[in-house]
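Long-time lurker, finally posting.

We've been working with Fused MFS/spermidine synthase (Massilia agrisoli) and I want a structural starting point before designing mutants. I don't trust myself to interpret raw outputs, so I'm hoping someone here can both generate the structure tokens and explain anything notable. Sequence follows.
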Amino acid sequence: MSSTPTSRFAAPGHPPATTTQFRGVRFLHLGTSWVQGAMRLDKPDNIELEYVQMMMMWMLFKEQPKRIAQLGLGSGALTKFCYQRFPSARVDVAELNPNVIDICHAEFGLPPNDERLNVREMDAMDFVLDPANRNSIDVLQVDLYDEEARGPVLDSQEFYQACFDCLLDDGIMTANVFGEFSNYDKNLQNMELVFDAVVWLPEVHDANIIVIAFKRAPQIDFSVLYERAGDIKRRMNLPAKNWVNGLKSWMQDHQE
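Top reply, 14 upvotes:
Generated this for you. Predicted structure of Fused MFS/spermidine synthase:
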């Protein structure tokens, strides 16, 4: 991987956003070696990283969301994918670091805001506490890391309660829980205090664990989910069968 950044956005007051490139993939960093996102240069609209693909596993349960919100922009992969693949959906993003927003526009193909896309420089906690967002979101995707990447920046019961309050009655949250081991239990416990059902899939890609949390626990029929997974693979080229396998394994391990 090239050791010197190919691009650097460094407005003061926030960690600088830089890129490196290796074997046709552009990586996003926040002033450290930690990878905060990636894009394959010859497939810029695909989701490159497996754990980021897993953030889309809500598609097994929702076919046509009207409003998708993203907390933490990363390299813009989820935002671009949702904006392009769900043309009837509104996509809102809260990203605290203006350097990340700028580098995503310049180097990662993030489109400009329009009537369906609204990427804002703001704190994720402010977004979920905004009364205007209460009971209005179908899908909430949470991937909040600073430059140290030791664990989610926001992980309190209060935060997850605010996420819950933003969702519609059948809303779903997916979240990336990454970092030091103690963070896993803290995040999962705080989610379980709030959400009706919380499931996590086996870790992938440097200990990223993806959690799916339901405001209202769904009735799960695995034959239906495998059928949907096949459709997602055909239409979206995402490995959705792996997600169903992970859900099935989790349920077998947690049956009491």
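Before you design anything, note these points.
The first helix runs from residue 50 to 54.
The chain has a mean pLDDT of 89.
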